Amino acid sequence: MRFVIVTGMSGAGKSTALKSLEDMGYFCVDNLPVALIEKFVELSIDNNFENDKIAIGIDIRSGEALGELSMYLNRLRENKFNFEVLYLDASNKTLLKRYKETRREHPLQRGRSLEDGINEERNKIDFLKKLADYTIDTSGLLTREFKAETVKIFSTDKDYSNMIVTIMSFGFKFGIPQDADFVFDVRFMPNPYYEESLRKKTGNDQEVRDYVMNSKSSTEFLKKLTDLMSFATKQFIDNEDRHHIVIAIGCTGGRHRSVTIANELYQAMQENPYSVRVFHRDIANDTYVKGEA
Questions:
Q1: 152-186 burial code (b ≥16 CB/10 A, e <16)
Q2: Which of 28, 53, 73, 260 has the most crowded CB, counting CB atoms within 10 A?
């Protein structure tokens, strides 16, 4: 039997995770009282429950009983019952935005500010984060990307690291991304803007890609960048409590060179045991300024 406990911050995506698990054939129960966990497990085993994949959702709505969860989980482990904990997290900024958009009240708000409720919850469930087998930070994830992460863990059974790497292309004339952990400038590379036939294309087009990469400086830079980012990401995984890093690659307009290198880096990092995604922030901007691309 595969038994999964889904928990984490309110608003971080627990309902989405449970729905995704349900789509994968899991029998899902949300907001199961903490005191019933042992009995639920016992019944599932003794009655030869027809579904060998079960997921339960537990969060701050359990109230004071949540503090007893560690005791129940320790007893399950003592009885040699295997289970996995999926912890869902998100930044305060993201949670504030989600709650304001849905107009819901946070479970711990109780007439206080929304941020106070979020901070109190983060403190109260910190012990669950430490128990987690898998952690997903959903701050920058689209729903389909979040579901893909869940499938990767609980369906494909591939090696999984609690790290999501976002590779972002951007244009310097539109500003450096504020959430970037690493910023690289590729404006030294051959510029397709000066080729009339390529000007209105982007780095997603093969002709632009070939033009940029048909340069020794471009290929050497990509190799060194891949080595550096693979090394740095491993250090974050091994030594830091981080689950998401952003690698920003910029050219002047964010349409040609940065898009090409972001795509190439994305492909080069696919073999690593963490999730990699690529995002082109300024590729849709059609503002052309002579001499800039």
A1: bbbeeeeebbbbbbbbbbbbbbeeebeebbeebeb
A2: 260
